[in-house]
Amino acid sequence: MKILVLNCGSSSIKYQLFEMNSSEVIAKGIIEKIGLSGSFLKHTKQDGEKVKLVGDIVDHTIGIEYILGVLVSEKHGCLKSLNEIEAVGHRVVHGGEKFNDSVIITDKVIDEIEACVDLAPLHNPPNLQGINAMKSLLPDVQQVAVFDTAFHQTMPDYAYTYAIPYSLYKKYGLRRYGFHGTSHKYVSQRACEILGKDYKTQKIISCHLGGGASVAAIKNGESIDTSMGLTPLEGMIMGTRSGDVDLGVLTFIMNKEDIDVKAANALVNKHSGVLGITGISSDMRDIENASAEGNERAKLALEMYDYRIKKYIGAYSAAMGGCDIIIFTGGVGENGDSTRAGVCQGLEYLGVELDSEINSSFRAEEKVISKPESKVTLMVVPTNEELMIARDTLRLLN
Questions:
Q1: Does 395 show up as a binding residue in the annotation?
Q2: Binding residue per annotation — 92?
Q3: pTM of the entire structure?
Q4: Any catalytic annotation for residue 244?
Q5: 8 A C-beta contact, residue 63 and residue 137
Q6: Is 208 annotated to bind ligand?
Q7: Catalytic pick from 148, 225, 324, 337?
Q8: Which of 34, 178, 352, 368 sits at 20 to 30 Å (Cα–Cα) from 337?
Q9: Residue 245: Cβ within 10 Å count
């Protein structure tokens, strides 16, 4: 069975085509600059050969037409016919309280995803554009929505409720939802597969560290808490997002700088995080290089970044009554050995013993990085959200 996975952004579409009998990726790529000048498609074949196709891609429907066209093209394709695609799985960022699992897409489901647009105004609209485009182009192929928020719907009410007037929660759905759910689910399950552990008996802390970053507490196979909230702004210090900040700081800045809500939102989402602290970059590699050269603000940013993750690990260990496994994933988690070392330093009280030699010897591999005697198993597990989406799609079709 072949399943196409789509991740539609505001001006981009990422795609992967899976042969589910072997879980192999037989084609993948990305379209960028949709609706802008210079739009293009980058396509990678199963043998690694790459091609770049430039064209006028004015909307998501035309973008998906390009993708389907290259998949069946004689020169670059891997399909004889589009009829070989048996299902399409879509990443959908926000499912609100309506969806606690992936779901086969119907007209009613589309309406309910549209009802969540206010909760994710930058993400859900392009997700819907991809769904509607595929519905128009391949109307007989079943589609599945896989929600970033669904995995965290097992959180108890005392973990997801904010201490604001309860009437506002009921009126607008203002609560913690959490994100990166597909990633947290994949890496936590994969870690247990690697270790031969029963997923339903483990206390796991999953650290998804990248441009966006979140930590999740997963107890007996269920998310019981996570650092992101109503939006992806809460929690960790990120590339350009502030993470946790006293709301009084924001209202103070709005008053003193005489800025409106839109400008304040841009400030904490686009101009804060390690970029705001350092004034250098949102890329941790640039920050690490600057720190090595003696830049004090870069050094401060790295210390703050590690410290925030460490605090959440401590809090979630307390919330779960212990911890069996700590996982690092995402671009920084998979490649940043110095970040992993900085986070683990000081966690010895939990029984954490990092093997420094192993930790610094690889990049983006599945690897146990703790010493054999460590009471908590430390792991790096590269995330694979697209495979998780494909698996959920297959599960629902079966």
A1: no
A2: no
A3: 0.93
A4: no
A5: no
A6: yes
A7: 148
A8: 178
A9: 15
